[in-house]
Amino acid sequence: MTDIDLGATVTASQPGSGVSRETFASKGNAFELRGVTVSYGGKPAVVDIDMDIPNQAITAFIGPSGCGKSTLIRCLNRMNDLIPSARVDGQVLYHGEDIYDPRIDPVEVRKRIGMVFQKPNPFPKSIYDNIAFGPRILGMKGDMDEIVERALRGGALWDEVKDRLHDNAFGLSGGQQQRLCIARCLAVEPDVILMDEPCSALDPISTGKIEDLMLELKERYSIVIVTHNMQQAARVSDMTAFLIVKLDGDEQHRQGRLVEYDVTEKIFTNPADPRTEDYVTGKVG
Amino acid sequence: MRPSVDPDTIAGAVRAPLAEGRTNRWLELGFQGSLLFCVFAAFAVLAALIGDVLADGLGSLSLDFITDTPSRIVPEASGIGPALAGTLFLMAVCAAFIIPVGIATAVYLEEYANRESRIARFIELNIQNLAAVPSIVYGILGLAFLVRGPLSLGNTMVAGGLTLGLLVLPVLIVAGREAIRAVPNSIREGSMALGATKWQTIWKQVLPAALPGIATGAILSLSRAIGETAPLIVVGAVYFATSVPSSFGDDVTALPIQIFSWVSDPREEYKALAAAGILVLMAILLAMNAVAIWLRNKYEQKW
Prior knowledge:
Oligomer: heterodimer
Helix content of chain A: 25-40%
Order of helices and strands of chain B: EEHHHHHHHHHHH
Distance between the termini of chain A: 34 Å
Number of strands of chain A: 10
Radius of gyration of chain A: 19 Å
Largest sheet of chain B: 2 strands, antiparallel
Mean pLDDT of chain B: 88
Strand content of chain B: under 5%
Shape of chain B: flat
Low-confidence stretches of chain B: none
Distance between the termini of chain B: 67 Å
């Protein structure tokens, strides 16, 4: 990568101070979770989650490993369906509709709710075909070259790859691959983007670029991000949910629980629960 | 008063000089030597075989030998024309049968079947067993079910090719499953997360990524089928074909059968013809395997 932009990491702005939960009320909620429990093979992994995820904002899930934050984000676009033993109880309302209603086709859910994964997972195809895959299978109308360019611009990758659109995507750096995956997701014009630890495999400069991109994208999309990096949650998110692992009695069985969910600033400066405070100040975890 | 410490003693143990620690050296060398001998023995057998066949058969090889029909009277005018054409017909039938069926089976077992279910485990066990069934048994199956019996195809290329197909199908299924399993789950998730259906994901992402491995498996399956003799004898291959086959309904002829028929002839000249036939068969086999290796090296995806 030649265009190292050190400014990127620094400019990621803090969410404005003085925000409260009400700030997001006017925009409405993308998701409303009601008593959501996700189990694998009959054993609950996250238990009884209630939360509202606002539109056009960044909501972060933080917590120690094994607390079920990835499990929780994967149930927002029914990715857990791919694991045969997984089961979701409770309601996940997406703009008021329960996405686990038997009448709902999970494929339709995933068209609207895109996802970016922990490890960049470009398809073993050209950069162009990586972007065009989604629009093609969904039968989207319009000039494909334009769709690809728009998506790559949206993913802040266009300038770096415009001269080698037909090269294999595996030739890109890790950070570029992850932005390609974000661009690929934008190409199908979703409403929500779920990001499961999108920067955990990236260096700080690439991470900074993705964080800048997220702040840009939240103008148009609702974003939910899982991160193990508390600074990242503090830098980019508007709302933060803190989850913990609870050992269930004598059984060696771990369950994730939601401890606190509030405006990011409050979670990091004046949390209501002492366990949140211990975690965000680095006393535990 | 502190006890005096012997510099050669640590925690009471006597430190042995480093130079004494080389008792295993000869054992090590001997072991390595015997391994090398085994490699050499295997290689020597192959080299001797090829050398012998080359010495016997090279003199009979010519363009005419490839195209001529065999003759019981004039060995010099004999050739493998009908046998070679027959082998090509058999391979075409075999490929047309095993490639779609093998890939479909591999896709079902890897992408759809519930691994835990009894039926999937039963199928899996059977595929492994099928790969070990002696080829003559497939010949009898072909005779009973394809040549006669329910399908009654007669002693045709179609029946012969299908019999060979049944024989090598497990090889392709196993290779196809491995190629499909090698495609990481993250690719499937990435595709599904864009709103692709399961079928679109398999058809547009998984199969293209697995294609080099599947193609390699298909070629290796066919190269196993091309050398088979026993099942073809059972389904009624013609020992002495006087004309080049021209359709899938013609009698079964094949290179290994022609070689077998020449080998059993007591006259010296026909032994040389058999060796020349073996050379042609080996050249085809080596070429197929070379293509398989080339395909694998060139297109195999590194994840």
